[in-house]
Hints:
Bound molecules: flavin-adenine dinucleotide, flavin mononucleotide, FE2/S2 (inorganic) cluster
Mean pLDDT of chain C: 95
CATH class of the largest domain in chain A: Alpha Beta
Order of helices and strands of chain C: EEEEEEHEHEHHEHEEEEEHEHEHH
Radius of gyration of chain C: 18 Å
Low-confidence stretches of chain C: none
Radius of gyration of chain A: 18 Å
Number of strands of chain A: 16
CATH superfamily of the largest domain in chain A: Nucleotide-binding domain of ferredoxin-NADP reductase (FNR) module
Oligomer: heterotetramer
Strand content of chain A: 25-35%
Shape of chain C: globular
Number of domains of chain C: 1
Low-confidence stretches of chain A: none
CATH topology of the largest domain in chain A: Rossmann fold
Number of strands of chain C: 16
Helix content of chain A: 10-25%
Distance between the termini of chain C: 27 Å
Number of domains of chain A: 2
Amino acid sequence: MILRCETAKVVEHREIGSGYRYIVFDTPKMAGDMIPGQFVHVKIPSLEASALRRPFSVFDAEEGRVHVLYKTVGRGTAALNSVRTGDSVSVMGPLGHGFPSQCNGVALLVGGGYGVAPLHFLAKRLKAAGHGSIEVFIGGRTKDDLLAVDRFRAMGVGVHLATNDGSEGVKGLVTDPLDDELARIRASDGKFELFACGPDPMLKAVAMRATGTSSRGWISMDRHMICGVGACYACIQKTVRGNSRCCVEGPVFRAEDLVWE
Amino acid sequence: MILRCETAKVVEHREIGSGYRYIVFDTPKMAGDMIPGQFVHVKIPSLEASALRRPFSVFDAEEGRVHVLYKTVGRGTAALNSVRTGDSVSVMGPLGHGFPSQCNGVALLVGGGYGVAPLHFLAKRLKAAGHGSIEVFIGGRTKDDLLAVDRFRAMGVGVHLATNDGSEGVKGLVTDPLDDELARIRASDGKFELFACGPDPMLKAVAMRATGTSSRGWISMDRHMICGVGACYACIQKTVRGNSRCCVEGPVFRAEDLVWE
Amino acid sequence: MVDTSVDLGGLDMATPIATASGTFGYGFEYSGSMDYSKLGAVTAKGIRLDSWPGNAMPRHCEVPGGLVNAIGLQGTGIEHFLDITVPHYMSQIGSAPPMIVNIWGGSIDEYSEVARRLTEASATKECSAIRAIECNVSCPNVKEGGHTFGQDPKVLNELVSAVREKTNLPLIVKLAPNVPDIGVYVRACEDGGADALSMINTIPAMVIDIEKRRPVLANRTGGLSGKGVHPAAVKIVYDAHRVTKLPILAMGGVYEAKDAIEFLLAGATAVAVGTASFTEPATAENVFDGIVSYCERHGFDSVSQITGALLA
Amino acid sequence: MVDTSVDLGGLDMATPIATASGTFGYGFEYSGSMDYSKLGAVTAKGIRLDSWPGNAMPRHCEVPGGLVNAIGLQGTGIEHFLDITVPHYMSQIGSAPPMIVNIWGGSIDEYSEVARRLTEASATKECSAIRAIECNVSCPNVKEGGHTFGQDPKVLNELVSAVREKTNLPLIVKLAPNVPDIGVYVRACEDGGADALSMINTIPAMVIDIEKRRPVLANRTGGLSGKGVHPAAVKIVYDAHRVTKLPILAMGGVYEAKDAIEFLLAGATAVAVGTASFTEPATAENVFDGIVSYCERHGFDSVSQITGALLA
Lengths: 261, 261, 312, 312
Ligand SMILES: Cc1cc2nc3c(=O)[nH]c(=O)nc-3n(C[C@H](O)[C@H](O)[C@H](O)COP(=O)(O)OP(=O)(O)OC[C@H]3O[C@@H](n4cnc5c(N)ncnc54)[C@H](O)[C@@H]3O)c2cc1C
Ligand SMILES: Cc1cc2nc3c(=O)[nH]c(=O)nc-3n(C[C@H](O)[C@H](O)[C@H](O)COP(=O)(O)OP(=O)(O)OC[C@H]3O[C@@H](n4cnc5c(N)ncnc54)[C@H](O)[C@@H]3O)c2cc1C
Ligand SMILES: Cc1cc2nc3c(=O)[nH]c(=O)nc-3n(C[C@H](O)[C@H](O)[C@H](O)COP(=O)(O)O)c2cc1C
Ligand SMILES: Cc1cc2nc3c(=O)[nH]c(=O)nc-3n(C[C@H](O)[C@H](O)[C@H](O)COP(=O)(O)O)c2cc1C
Ligand code: FES
Ligand code: FES
């Protein structure tokens, strides 16, 4: 894997529900190297020269293109909104340590909000590798935050939804349907691995369900970044090895390595 | 005259020859107060919040609108290029000390580059006030820098042109045709007043032709500004009264008051 | 209703917003383009005993995030200031906000004498707007005065003591940002009898025209102000507030209410708007409105409750 | 052909462009995304004797014109640095540029010991990339070290002298910007036997989240870097150059060739790219190319001719 900084043409960019957008970059040099869980670091064109890049997980990578699903939360993502098809954007990647490419037992993917992005890419790759049993658990405040549901269904992945307000799926936390599934698997002495990406409390809850068991948990951490390549030490997550950089030692960590504060 | 800060809609904006543009602001509150030689201070929308305003002479003011003719020279004027009809722009004005509203004898207007802007407004007002004899002398490096020539002609003003490269009018300095005219007037014992706006060397040359004579010279100085209202003391021109602020004591000064370095 | 009044070391301000010296002329230049009722004070441009020509042109240069200036304290001297300028300010602005007069000089005696005359004049009707003195000991742009007195804590202390003797007006001392430890200077002011502190003055800076191979400013160097200096200013105010009970008038890159509230939370009692006014004369008004709505949103009855109200 | 080599107090640099400590990791992290042949040196992240965890999160905040950071000098200690990091750098980067090692510590002894071990190691093949030491006496983000040694000229002089005794590598001392008079610190370094100076480190700064009423950074305060600090940095380099013959490695807001050339004209011998690399890893390359074309355009045969070449 070679780190690259590519000037990418935007080939698609559209809204996909309230507050979320989908953007596709033409990045022939890096797209083929992408592993699920890795991310790209994007220079937002209309921000001033001193503005930092913004990191985004890879939602999909195929045919020389990198797909990103993003939520507009601040000035950077707001500025990204106004990028148009045909515009050039500087994209760095592949970055970070992704998910493993295989899975032992049922793959349980747990995501919240834009956290489904790397899980989508992961599900696709596991499917392509012939891995049969994949269940995805998607949570959100309301049904608008449940993303890519159709894409998962189209892949033939079992989809379980939960919303805080009950506007779709189970009313409650995404761990509710997850715990039901875990109970089922345990009852049948099945094997599983957990893959999670989303807000910290969700990640912690998922990690707790993996640590101390024989099953592995893979947790993708979202930490505020500067460089994205391991050079600045801004993006720290406490782990059993000390202060680890999410951008190179992560974003995907083994659940049992994480130290929660 | 009350200083105002108006949110103005752009009602017209177009290129008028290489490097020059014409923009019209809808400023019903200030337009009627404008005096030739005064200027507006414009906040350029797409620049960052900390960018300073840019000052522009009033080319014309009528029917609640302020007209500006500008040259693209740096990042502010470049950013102004991309303002579109219908956009809102914050405009401050009327600012500065303009030309007198009457003239004793032949009005000799001498301008270079965008310096014709206040002279155009002046000619229009003098005409409206019934002043008959107005001659305008317009100089530039090349014929592309000779602006608003047709507008002056349409008003019935005598137009004299000079370019450094001889691509239009007299080959030489604008003071060449001016000196011919001065000789003619002096020969007939006529009276005249000089009104000038343009690059410093031109202004100095014109000022020299007024000082020490019984004729008055009115020189509009272009000094790099911050506030435009007399509050910062950035825009200094040496005068017989000491360091004067171009934005309030000028931009129009009496020729004999100016001290040249 | 939020109580917006604050007490800046004896200067009663109806709102916590002032204008910063040198960026708002003598208080009247912006009349017409702003609502003065939202200003708790205006600070006049630096004044000394005699008139002073200031520096040669060019005197400023726009830079990313702000401005580098070397105006050099041009001014007409105290006489003209008291006879003409202040009365003009009072007549131009209906119910004119109290004026803080920023002073400087080439010697401690000069500072003292200017302070004495201001104090005397402030008792007259024509100059009754004069309500506080701000000693500028931190202007980077004039060799003969300003920062030479502010760099050495001992000299600073002498200066403040001397001025203190000559005035019963609230005495504010304006400090420079380019120091390793603001505490040392704060103590020098406290010991000298200052009533309040203001900070920051501009940060010494320089811009070079690489094509001409010359400094852009005629004075070669200048002072950096504006948006970009704000995080540095907040730090200095925070440090100063931790070591003194003196109220602080904070300035440096205030463009919106958020910037001012950061200063208040860091420990400022009032906030001055400087460079931002040049781009948007309504900045002070907007900042005031934003502070009031912040108080409402956060349940503060008075602006003064925000001062130093960082949570632990 | 322009001669781009410069001599930074005994450190031979093939180009006048270095990377700034803490903004370029240990030199290898950006491999693949840039052309190392245009770098005259890389500066490693601050290293001390033992490993150090750095500050809590969050460690940075974007601000207009740059960045406020309080990384807090996280690092693995000299042992790991010499055994693993430097050899890795040398193997990862074909014809690796010379490395300047930025050091810090909690005591003068610690600085000296780190310097001694670096010097020793630099003689070995595995660590032969180590070619200079940069003493960081100006990090605003760690109480125990860094700026405590740089604030007092006497202590600074002792530190430099002590380190000097332990090393024959080119010794660069990195100074803080927040001082009234850089000359005092320059002399302390000169007298202590420094070979070169580097400046500026970040400017102490603070950002407050007004909704949470808490500092944004876990460390409360941090250091400001990036575009916005450039005019302040140029002034400091200019001031330093006027009082010393020591070569200066200048940094602070270099984003394009123009910024670097300002530093050179102000008196710098070489220039480091810091925060800009985060946004655009190719900054150093672009700056190098721009300097070469500037030399051609202005008739300079060598980059070193630009140093201090302001016209009168
Ligand atoms: C490895 C990684 C992968 C990511 N993948 C995606 C993705 O696929 N889709 C997506 O929409 N977003 C993703 N993010 C988050 C995304 O980077 C941030 O939302 C974005 O940088 C915010 O920029 P902004 O300028 O809009 O917000 P800002 O104005 O910078 O900030 C808005 C708010 O968001 C916070 N914030 C900013 N950056 C981050 C961050 N990186 N992590 C947490 N909080 C932050 C700020 O502190 C602030 O409170 C990812 C982040 C990381 C680290
Ligand atoms: C009273 C007054 C009236 C003016 N009227 C007009 C007008 O009618 N039409 C017009 O096109 N321009 C006019 N100007 C000049 C105009 O304000 C500048 O061209 C403009 O501000 C440049 O902005 P910029 O960001 O494009 O250039 P910048 O990037 O700021 O600067 C480009 C170059 O121009 C110089 N410069 C910037 N501002 C000025 C200035 N005000 N005077 C001299 N040099 C400057 C800079 O030093 C630099 O070298 C007037 C200026 C004044 C003071
Ligand atoms: C053009 C200009 C002139 C100034 N003149 C003075 C002055 O006369 N006296 C003074 O104490 N400070 C002066 N200052 C400093 C400001 O009062 C203020 O301290 C500084 O600009 C920081 O605030 P800001 O970033 O909001 O502008 C001046 C600043 C500018 C930009
Ligand atoms: C994230 C970050 C980490 C830094 N770490 C160090 C460090 O370890 N040692 C040091 O001397 N300077 C450190 N600095 C300061 C830089 O080397 C440089 O002096 C400063 O950032 C100014 O340059 P710039 O504006 O180009 O970034 C750090 C700066 C940043 C932004
Ligand atoms: S973002 Fe720089 S080390 Fe991770
Ligand atoms: S531009 Fe401020 S006084 Fe003229």
